[in-house]
Each structure stands twice: as structure tokens, then as C-alpha cells.
Amino acid sequence: MTSPLPEEILKMQGSYCGLHDEEWGFVKRVGRRGCMVVALCWTLWLSMLGSLTPGKGEEIPVVAYIGNAEPQILGIQVLDESAKPTNSIDPGSGFFLDILVRDNNTLADVARIRAILYSPSSSPGGANSEQDHYTFRWDSSGFANEGGVGSITVPQCSVPSDRTVAQGTWRFALKLSKNARQSAGWTILVRVEDEANLTQSSRALEVTSFVSLTIDASQITFSGSPGQVVAANQNPILVNYASNHIVNLACSCTQFIGVLDSHFVIDPSSFSVDDDPVHSQAQETGQAEVTLSTQRLDILVGLPIGTGSRNLYVFVSIPEPFLDQDYRGTMNFELSS
Ligand SMILES: [Ca+2]
Ligand SMILES: [Ca+2]
Predict the structure, then answer these.
(1) C-alpha angle with apex 333: 332 to 337, nearest 5 degrees?
(2) Does residue 110 belong to any structural domain of this protein?
(3) Is the pTM of this model over 0.85?
(4) Which ligand is nearest to the Cα of residue 290, counting in written order?
(5) pLDDT in tens, 200-251
(6) In a domain, 251, yes or no
(7) Ligand whose nearest atom lies closest to the CA of 102
(8) Is residue 58 part of a domain?
(9) Which residue, 197, 203, 201, 202, is CA-closest to 103?
(10) 55 C-alpha to ligand 1 centroid (Å)
């Protein structure tokens, strides 16, 4: 036989365990077994109380591994020399390329930006050339003309002032060559690389037309007698040209009017222009000799893109009979598509 615990002790333990009066009555009825349950409950409660005692905690080191975020290209904007947005640029003129980049593990993670500009005659991986393909770069060493054609004005380029943030703009200050191909179908391809990823985006660009023509003779003079065909005293006349599309050299001519007696004129059809020094060849050398008109006529056809120079030879067939005096008129040379 075992002796029951004193009722006071049982009641004290029961109240610590949160027992209500009716539950306490049950404990009394079950005797010692119930007291053991109550004692266990009390011990557990005391144990919990000990674990919550201030000054008994432990510190656990926590390491947060933040993964890389792929960079994003939020915008590619072209600005003219006045920093106004545009969709077209003039070859040989400066422009800005603004690239808005986001990287959610901060812009400090952006390692390299490439801007590739290529015409419909090239491709993203095409060879760099003044006519069709340009490559510019920014990386930790700064801005560079990676393709070696066109130009980049580094002092006018810029990077985001705060690279601890997630978003900012890189500005490239660029210039394409004057013979960059005229086309509305150019592409600006931008590639942004961080420590692990490469992302790219593109937009269209138009390169406008450009032509330039100079002639080394400020005037053309002839001297001869009626009935003769004479060459200009300046032959050959050197024509220098530049163009970013295939062009023709054309010429038109006014009447040449007598200085003393304007009743005498030499018509444009008395003049001819050729690319070789022999007038009226039986078998033509090079391009055909062209008899001039007041209308614009092509003399040299299909001049290639780029810069070049060609010789021209001008002839006049002096009418007979004809008044001996000076005659003045104008020849107009121009490049046309
Ligand atoms: Ca990143
Ligand atoms: Ca010829």
C-alpha cells in the first residue's frame, strides 16, 4: 500500500498546472496516479520557465546568399547634337546614344556594354566598316571605339553617377563616317553583360543621305576658231565626290551668250563631256560622251559609296560662221540618285 500525498501539496501542484476545481476533484479521486500526472505537468512547466530566463539565449550566425540578377535594358534612345530625341542621324555628325539599364543586384554588377550599329547590308556579327558596321564599348577601362571606324567622343560620354542603385543611364557620344550607308534600315543592337549574364535589345535607326562634290576649276575657258572642235583649256577637270549612297554625276548647261553682241549664242548642244580625252571616239572608252542640254543629264553613272575623284573632259564645237567675241554661260554639275 502507498500513502496518498497530502491534499495541500496535490492542490498546489494542480493549481500550477492550471487545473480547475472540477479537474482538481478528479485528481483527488484518482489518488497517487493522478498525483504523478500533476507532478509531471509541474516539472514540465518549471522546465519551460527556466528556458525563458533572460541571459540564457544563444546566437546563431546567419549567412544570406544573394543570387545574381540578370541585367535588363529598359531603353535605347538616340539624341541629336542638341540632345533632342530623334530616329535619324546625319553621317559625319555627332549624336548621343542613351542606354537605360537595370540590374537588381545593383549597377556595380554591370561589367560591359556594347553598342553595335549595322546597316541592312551587314549583320550583328559582321565585320566593322565605315559603310555598314560600327562597334562601341564601355567596360571597367572606360569607353572605347572597339570597331575602329567612326568616332567616340569620350569626354561627352557618361556613366550613372551612383552605381549602388539598380537603374541608370550610360551615354555614348558617337559619330558615324560620312560614307555610312544611307538607309532607314539600320539597327542599333545593345548588349549588356554582368558577372554571369548577357542580355540584348535593339531598335531601328535611319542614316540620312550625304553627298559632297567639288570641282578643281573655278571656270572653264575655250579658245578656237569657227568650225573647230576644241577642248577646254582646263582639261582634265578633276571632280572630287563623297556620298553614302550610289550616285550619278549629272550636268546641265545654259546657252553661252556673246558678251559684245548677245544675238550670237552657243547652244548647250555644242558642248560635250566625256571621261576620256578623245572627242567622238569610234569605239568609246569608259562611259559614253554626253552632249549637253539645259536638262540635267547623267555623265558618270553608278559612282560607288565613299569618296573618290574622276577626270572629266569638256569639248565645244564652235559654230561656223560665227562672230569672234567672248561668250559666257554656266555648266552645273551635281550628284543625283
Ligand atoms: Ca546582375
Ligand atoms: Ca568615254
Answers:
(1) 125
(2) yes
(3) no
(4) 2
(5) 999 999 999 999 999 998 888 888 899 999 999 999 999 999 999 999 999 9
(6) yes
(7) 1
(8) no
(9) 197
(10) 42
